[in-house]
Amino acid sequence: MTSYEPLAHDAVVLAGGAARRLGGADKPGLRVGGRALLDRVLDACSDADTTVVVADPRPTARPVRWAREEPAGAGPLAALDAGLRHTTADHVVVLSADLPFLERDTVRRLLTALRADRSDGVLVTDADGRDQPLVAAYRAQALRRALAALARTASDGPAGGGGLTGLPLRRLTAALDFTRVPDDVASFDCDTWDDIAIARARIREHGHVLDEWISAVKDELGIELDVDTRALLGLARDAAHGVARPAAPLTTFLVGYAAAQAKGGPEAVAEASRKAAALALRWAEETTGGTGEPDVAPDATPDTRPDV
What we know:
By secondary structure, this protein is α/β, with parallel strands linked by helices. Helices cover 43% and strands 13% of the residues. The protein has ten helices and nine strands. The chain has helices spanning 37-44, 76-84, 104-116, 140-156, 170-175, 193-203, 206-221, 229-242, 247-261, 266-288; strands at residues 10-14, 31-32, 35-36, 51-54, 65-67, 91-96, 121-125, 131-139, 178-182. The strands form two sheets. It has a seven-stranded mixed beta sheet with strand order 5-4-1-6-8-7-9. A two-stranded antiparallel ribbon has the order 2-3. A hairpin with a 5-residue loop joins strand 7 and strand 8. The longest helix has 23 residues, at 266-288. It is elongated and about 85 Å long.
């Protein structure tokens, strides 16, 4: 299997909207699966060389650069232009900060598609087939050119002087040549409290909850390590069944501690897990004699004491 070769890129995340349908709540700071929406998006675009967040500064799980459109609240195209001014890569990923199900694989898929064709950008379409220009990868030169042209057109129009202020996103999609990638999961955004409730419920579905919990813990502890979760779960199962149930969390803790002592990455965790799993199996074999039954001598006299 070939490994992913990233296309060098920067990222711009728009996080300064008014959230009117949420009653003016701090939407980027709302938590889904224990993590702020903004932090979830920042994790999805963590391959970027530089990530610019267009909003007032706030604490984030990952280091970013901050930018702000002038005037604040001038709209998504003005915010995008402000963020783009802080980027230098030939390709840029543009995202909104309210995408609870956006993952790194989706961002990589957009960039891979952009590398493969000659379009100005690759964007996601939602379940209704609508374009989502804030879940997209662009050629930076084409994006800058389109924004400049829209600003000139607006300034030359009857209102004059407005630049990009107040212009809708559909003006951008009409100005560029896009490749479209349907994805009704990655495109799900949180505009209302009902959307937040749906996202929080879906995160806790059985098929997702463990991965979500691990991601939340890693963010909380500032850990970047990617590990084989199934191997660790297998180790915990072997320790619980072959030794005693409380051995499961203690063993996995010790594996992590051993990997940290070795100053290693995923390989150190995998090696420590392998050793501990082998030990748990040896322990179980001594207990059962390799038969799955308690290991007792064939001629042993059964203990019939009432308290045994």
